[in-house]
Amino acid sequence: MLDHDYQKTAKKYDIEVNRPSGDDISIFPIEEARLRSSWVPALISIVAVVGYGWALQRKTVKVFLVNCVSKRRTNVQQHIAVPLTLQLFTGSTMVALFTMYGTLLTDLNQENPSSAQAAFNLVRCSLAAAGIAAINPLIDALDVGWCFTLYAGFCLGTLPLVVALRRFGNERRASNYFDP
To answer: For the chain: N or C, fewer Cβ within 10 A?
Structure first.
């Protein structure tokens, strides 16, 4: 997908792709090329996260109601296929997004790509740890379905940042806006 988007962007701007020596990204809109299709996995992931939360919520509520009505411990069997399928979609689309963003980061930091990737992984893992630490209090306060809906809303709220980077990133980079 990344190669396809790169080729499409090069064709759109009538830039010849030079595979052996690499392309000069000072004249190539690399942000547009790398983020061109990022909205597809992002939206699939957001929908899957909401569905996952409500699939878990449905199971939790159903088991709770059966236990309250019968006043005894029951062994209610719920099929696990729905949450597992939604986890598959969420996980695979998140991996696709991390690959797109990591590739863009490497393209933008050609002098020191390993440091850029290390910083990316540190921030990503720190945010994941914070999210994991916050998940139980959120589930206790909001229930499972609303907790994952809130998480999906947060993810949806970050999409305008990706759109802005895709739209204005090349112009800002060309004007040395990000340089100290």
So the answer is: C
Of 5-14, 45-54, 124-133, the one with minimum mean pLDDT is 5-14
Q: What is the pTM of this model?
A: 0.82
129-159 pLDDT per residue, tens: 999 999 989 999 999 999 999 999 999 999 9
| DSSP codes of every residue in the chain | -HHHHHHHHHHHTT----TTT---TTTS-HHHHHHTTTHHHHHHHHHHHHHHHHHHHHHHHHHHHHHHHHSS--------HHHHHHHHHHHHHHHHHHHHHHHHHHHHTTTSHHHHHHHHHHHHHHHHHHHHHHHHHHHHHH-HHHHHHHHHHHHHHHHHHHHHHHHHHHHHHHTTTT--
In the structure encoding, which two tokens stand for residue 11, read together? 């064709």
* CA–CA gap between residue 121 and residue 60 (Å, rounded): 34
Q: Are 105 and 8 in contact (CB under 8 A)?
A: no
176/180 Cα distance (integer angstroms): 9
The single-letter code of the amino acid at 118 is: A
Contact 147, 135 (CB under 8 A): yes
Tokens encoding 42: 């992002």
Residue with tokens 């540190």: 122
